[in-house]
Write a structure and sequence with these properties.
By secondary structure, the protein is of the alpha/beta class. The chain is 33% helix and 25% strand. It contains five helices and seven strands, in the order ββαββαβαβαβα. The protein is globular and about 60 Å long.
C-alpha cells in the first residue's frame, strides 16, 4: 500500500445529480495497461443543520458551492465525482467513480430496528463508507444524534460492513462541545477516524474524502491479500495430499 504522501488525488471531472438512481458507473481507460476502475458508494448522515449537503457540494463543486442561506434537505439526493489516484510504488492509476448519497435527517429513524430496515430503501445499505456529521458549534444533541446513528449502522447486517467516519463540521465557529472528549469517544471507544472541517471555509473537505478513498483501498488490499493467502494454503494442502508416500 502507498503511504499518504505517495497517494495523490487528481480531479478529472465533477458532476452533480438529484437522481436517486445509480449513476456511478466507472469508466475504463488505458494507460500503459496500469489503469484500474473502482466504484464507491459513500453515504452521508447526521444531525439537522450539521452542513452535510454543504460539505458534499463543496467537494463535488471544487470549493465553489457554499451558500450562507440554510435550505433544509427534504429529499435524498445523489452526487457524483470522478477522482484519479496515482500510486508511485506500483505506477498504477486508479479511477474512482464516487457516488455520494445525501440523506435528509427527517428520513433517518433513530429507534426501532423495523423502521431502520425500511429506511435502507433510501440507498443506504451496502455502502463502502458512511460519514456521520455533526455541528461542533451546536449543543450536545447534534453529537448525540451521531451516536445513535452509529449504533444503528454497526448493528444492522446490511450496513455493518461499511467503514465509518465521524466529521465535526463548522470549525470556523466557536466550539460548544469539549473537543478532547469527542476525540476520545470517536477514536478510542468507537475506533473510527475523526475529521474536523468547515464547509464555509472549504477546510479539510478534500482531506476527508481522500482519507475515505485511502481507507477503502487499504481494506480492498487487505481482503485481496487474505484471499491470496487462503488460496495458497489450500493449494499447498492439495499438493501435499497428492504427494503422499507409502513406506514399506
Amino acid at each position: 500500500m502507498p503511504t499518504t504522501a505517495d497517494l495523490r488525488a487528481f480531479v478529472r471531472e465533477a458532476t452533480t445529480s438529484s437522481s436517486s438512481t445509480d449513476g456511478a458507473t466507472s469508466l475504463t481507460a488505458d494507460c500503459n495497461g496500469q489503469i484500474h476502475s473502482e466504484t464507491v458508494k459513500i453515504v452521508v448522515l447526521g444531525a439537522a443543520c450539521a452542513g452535510k449537503t454543504s460539505v458534499i457540494k463543496q467537494f463535488v463543486g471544487n470549493g465553489q458551492e457554499f451558500s450562507d442561506h440554510y435550505d433544509p434537505t427534504e429529499r435524498k439526493s445523489s452526487h457524483f465525482k470522478t477522482v484519479l489516484t496515482f500510486d508511485t510504488n506500483t505506477q498504477k492509476i486508479t479511477h474512482w467513480a464516487l457516488k455520494i448519497v445525501d440523506v435528509p435527517v427527517t428520513d433517518v429513524p433513530i429507534a426501532a430496528v423495523m423502521s431502520w430496515s425500511n429506511f435502507l430503501q433510501f440507498d443506504v445499505a451496502n455502502a463502502a463508507a458512511y460519514v456521520i456529521m455533526f455541528d461542533v458549534s451546536a449543543q450536545f444533541h447534534s453529537f448525540d444524534f451521531v451516536r445513535t446513528i452509529r449504533e444503528q449502522l454497526v448493528n444492522h447486517p446490511s450496513t455493518s460492513g461499511g467503514l465509518i467516519f465521524i466529521a465535526g463540521n463548522k470549525v470556523d465557529l466557536p466550539y460548544q462541545l469539549n473537543r478532547s472528549d469527542i476525540m476520545h469517544v470517536v477514536q478510542k471507544q468507537w475506533k473510527c477516524q475523526y475529521f474536523e472541517c468547515s464547509s464555509k471555509k472549504n477546510f479539510h473537505i478534500v482531506g476527508l474524502f481522500q482519507a475515505i478513498i485511502e481507507a477503502v483501498q487499504a481494506k480492498q488490499s487487505a481482503a485481496a491479500r487474505a484471499k491470496a493467502h487462503h488460496s495458497e494454503f489450500h493449494g499447498f494442502r492439495r499438493t501435499f495430499k497428492s504427494d503422499k508416500c507409502c513406506i514399506q
